[in-house]
Amino acid sequence: MLAVERLTFLEPEGKVGYRWGRDGAEQETMDYLEFIARVTSHIPDKGQMVVPI
């Protein structure tokens, strides 16, 4: 699950930061296109069944 509160957009560089861990202590910064690719890779194909764990 993606928490919008943990996202930051670094506009001058065109990068997205995502914080995770306890109190958002860890952060990864990536190009916005890489971020979009990572997020959309979790969208199932049409007709594909998703089973919650």
Structure, explained:
By secondary structure, the protein is an alpha+beta fold. It has a domain at 1-29. The chain has one helix and three strands; from the N terminus they run E-E-E-H. The chain has one helix at residues 32-40, and strands spanning 7-10, 15-20, 26-31. A hairpin with a 5-residue loop joins strand 2 (15-20) and strand 3.
Briefly characterize the structure.
The protein has 53 residues and is an alpha+beta fold.
| Main pleated sheet | 3 strands, antiparallel
Q: Which regions contain 5 or more consecutive residues with pLDDT less than 50?
A: none
Mean of residue pLDDT values? 90
Structural class: alpha+beta
**Over the alpha carbons, how many angstroms does the gyration radius reach?**
14 Å
Share of residues in helices = 10-25%
Strand order of the largest sheet: 1-2-3
Overall shape = flat
Summed up, the helix count is 1
Written as H for each helix and E for each strand, in order along the chain, the element string is: EEEH
How many strand segments? 3
Question: How far apart are the termini?
Answer: 13 Å
Fraction of residues in β-strands: 25-35%
